[in-house]
Design brief:
ATP binding, 281 residues, nucleotide-binding, binds adenosine-5'-diphosphate, two-stranded antiparallel ribbon, 14 strands, alpha/beta, single chain, 23% strand, globular, ATP hydrolysis activity
């Protein structure tokens, strides 16, 4: 019945039921990449933001969908948490269209926090509702022509992550982990889930890997004696980068100039180079 060659969602098409992958209504997106972790607080949103800035710096058009609905931190990363998306009516059937909020570099961001009145209001919804909202934010946002859409996915192997892997045509996924978590079963579960869902894993980023001694410049691994390469090997994944604990990065976020800081810093070039190599750009 369906033709899977033209289906945007490779993992979600079979010749009986046809193509049922989600397609954005108001945009055309060339590459969709998910960023995921085993648990929260390891720097998944930070890595999403850094990659978005680096890709934008190369001249690509970039969007970021904050899919971590219950812990959205992308607007805060870019310092746009006081802005709100314009919501417009489409036709008279009750359909709406969301305008993404643009960062100073022109990265188009969509997050539930940009749609709700108060940033602090908690999301007290059950899984199916959250999944529906996420799908709507993906498909009803006016993305326009994008080279890259990065999706900051919810951590772990819950039903929202599963829906994204099943229904969104992901070209690949980047896994983010701290050193102590790299060899844990939670990250391994994410890797196994991605493989079962036929989602390509671009590689793993080890975040908060080390600190640099302010006096002698020595790299000190604070959470694990194993190297990041050894840890990535355990997971059977390519290492995209090991990133230090960096208080200048945190400060730049607090001061609202993270895009300027990240685009000038050489620290994140390895991440971008390895990402480009694996994606083939
Ligand atoms: P997640 O998306 O995995 O929940 P976040 O990216 O929101 O994690 O990061 C959690 C916290 O850790 C944030 O306060 C962020 O500023 C901080 N953080 C993340 N990566 C680093 C880093 N490399 N150096 C210093 N702080 C970091």
């Amino acid at each position: 019945m369906g033709n899977c060659n033209s289906c945007p969602s490779k993992g979600n098409c079979n010749s009986d039921s046809g193509c049922s992958g989600l397609v954005p209504k108001y945009g055309k997106i060339k590459h969709i990449i998910g960023i995921i972790s085993g648990k929260g607080g390891v720097g998944k949103s930070t890595v999403t933001g850094i990659l978005a800035v680096q890709l934008r710096k190369l001249g690509y058009t970039v969007g970021v969908l904050d899919g971590d609905i219950t812990g959205p931190s992308i607007p805060r990363f870019f310092g746009i948490n006081d802005k709100r998306s314009d919501i417009s009516q489409v036709g008279d059937g009750g359909e709406v269209k969301f305008a993404p909020v643009e960062t100073s570099m022109g990265i188009k961001v969509m997050s539930l926090n940009l749609l709700t009145e108060e940033e602090e209001a908690p999301v007290i919804w059950r899984g199916p509702v959250i999944t529906g909202v996420l799908k709507q934010m993906y498909s009803d946002t006016e993305w326009g022509e994008l080279d890259y859409l990065l999706i900051d996915m919810p951590p772990g192997t819950g039903d929202i992550a599963l829906t994204i892997m099943q229904e969104v045509p992901l070209e690949g996924m980047v896994i983010v982990s701290t050193p102590q978590e790299m060899v844990s079963m939670i990250v391994k579960k994410v890797v196994i889930m991605a493989k079962k869902m036929n989602v390509n894993i671009v590689g793993v980023v080890e975040n908060m890997s080390y600190v640099i001694c302010g006096k002698c410049g020595e790299k000190i691994r604070v959470f694990s004696k194993k190297t990041a390469e050894e840890q990535a090997e355990y997971l059977g994944l390519p290492l995209l980068a090991e990133m230090p604990i960096n208080l200048d990065l945190v400060e730049s976020m607090e001061n609202g100039n993270v895009e300027d800081y990240v685009s000038k810093s050489e620290e994140y070039e390895v991440l971008l180079d390895n990402f480009k190599n694996k994606i083939g750009i």
